[in-house]
Automatic annotation (TrEMBL):
Domain of life of the organism encoding this protein: Bacteria
PANTHER family, per database record: OUTER MEMBRANE PROTEIN ALPHA-RELATED (PTHR43308), S-LAYER PROTEIN _ PEPTIDOGLYCAN ENDO-BETA-N-ACETYLGLUCOSAMINIDASE (PTHR43308:SF5)
Name by which UniProt lists this protein: S-layer homology domain-containing protein
Keywords per UniProt: Repeat, Signal
InterPro entries associated with the record: Cell_Envelope_Struct_Comp (IPR051465), SLH_dom (IPR001119)
Lineage: Bacteria, Bacillati, Bacillota, Clostridia, Eubacteriales
Length: 382
């Protein structure tokens, strides 16, 4: 999901007026690290599953709780409340009321928000064809997820709806017009479902759940480019013991690249991202022969990079077949430590100082797969 600058952010979660603020947020990659990790709310301790996203958003002034110091994480969010949240976080300016909804009275505190978000969070069509906002209803889980996916301008039309059947027992209860947005949300780790395997599309959604979804939608970039720029993935050269067999198989089958001129060795491990709020990946790094680095770079062109992408895709699909249900990330690149200053030879773009010398880290290609489907590819720009 691409990083988006937010011009208008919420200063109140439950407001009685439609307010905006123009806060300047830090870089997306630093969001998790810059949060004030203390008990911001008396009823939301560090052990709560939503502590990290809520405390991050509160630390940036995007969410506040109640006057008694509580957050009420398990309280259901109503449709008016979510309309205000979405309008603020998506930067939608309030408009003069046009009377779109007959059940929204003039002067209603949520009226401008309800009309501002109607392209993402529309009213509900009744059996007589009338469209109502239904302000006394709680927001449904499927409507909230669908609205957020549309608000971040996701290209959800390319999502695979089969993911819903593969992951949710109650997939058939998801509305037809919400299936592709929710499939995209699942594919991009915006939503994960409940432990029992249900999605609960028509059920309500709590304040903690909405805060978590907003945090993931606007503060976490799960694209390969985002993971790289956010320092969520780095080259590595040690595998988890549980993946030794997979590592051996991949190295036997894909141990060479570019017409057998360059050797590759794959390493495998589990990788958490964004302090647990991003996707948990099975991360495979293919380390290209360091002894031929300068030759590789001298001959590097788009055709070679495309071959590297194809190999990354093949490796990702093979790992996905061996480990169904896991998000597989494959990256090809170089990593090496030099114990002397090599900037004159290797340049400074991919070198950074470490305690005992200089570390070279560089990626060339990447792919993400799950359950036999390639969800993302990435190629370095020359």
């Amino acid at each position: 999901m691409k990083k988006r600058a937010l011009s208008f952010l919420m200063t109140l979660l439950l407001a009685v007026t439609y307010q905006f603020s123009t806060l300047c947020l830090p870089a997306l990659a630093n969001t998790s690290d810059q949060a004030d990790h203390k008990n911001v709310f008396s009823d939301l301790g560090t052990g709560h599953w939503a502590y990290k996203p809520v405390s991050n958003l509160a630390g940036h002034g995007i969410f506040s709780g109640y006057p008694d110091g509580t957050f009420k994480p398990d309280q259901a969010v109503t449709r008016p409340e979510f309309a205000v949240m979405l309008a603020a976080v998506a930067g939608l300016k309030p408009q003069k009321l046009q009377g779109v909804y007959p059940d929204v009275p003039a002067g209603a505190w949520f009226g401008p928000a309800a009309e501002a978000v109607q392209q993402y969070f529309p009213g509900i069509t009744q059996t007589n064809g009338q469209v109502l906002f239904r302000p006394n209803d709680n927001a449904s889980r499927q409507d909230v997820v669908t609205a957020l996916v549309k608000a971040v301008k996701a290209d959800y039309h390319q999502a695979d709806p089969r993911l819903l059947q593969e992951n949710f027992r109650d997939y058939d209860k998801i509305n037809d017009d919400s299936r592709l947005p929710i499939a995209w949300a699942l594919q991009n780790n915006l939503v994960r479902g409940y432990p029992g395997g249900d999605f609960g599309p028509n059920g309500g959604i709590t304040r903690a759940e909405v805060a978590t979804l907003i945090f993931r939608a606007y503060f976490i970039d799960t694209s390969i480019n985002g993971l790289i720029n956010g320092n969520q993935i780095m080259p590595f050269t040690d595998s988890s013991p549980s993946y030794r067999e997979l590592e051996a198989n991949l190295n036997d089958k894909y141990g060479q690249i570019i017409s057998s001129d360059y050797h590759v060795r794959y390493f495998v491990r589990e990788q958490q991202t964004y302090a647990g709020e991003g996707p948990e990946l099975m991360y495979l790094f293919g380390a290209i022969d360091n002894l031929k680095y300068l030759n590789w770079v001298a001959g590097l062109n788009d055709d070679i990079l495309k071959q590297a992408v194809e190999q990354s895709k093949q490796v990702a699909l093979e790992a996905a077949a061996a480990y169904p249900g896991k998000d597989i990330l494959v990256m090809l690149g170089h990593t090496r430590i030099f114990y002397f200053d090599v900037r004159d030879v290797y340049g400074e773009k991919y070198l950074h100082p470490v305690s005992d010398g200089w570390q070279l880290n560089r990626f060339y290609s990447g792919a993400i797969a799950k359950n036999g489907t390639i969800n993302q590819t990435w190629m370095d720009k020359l």
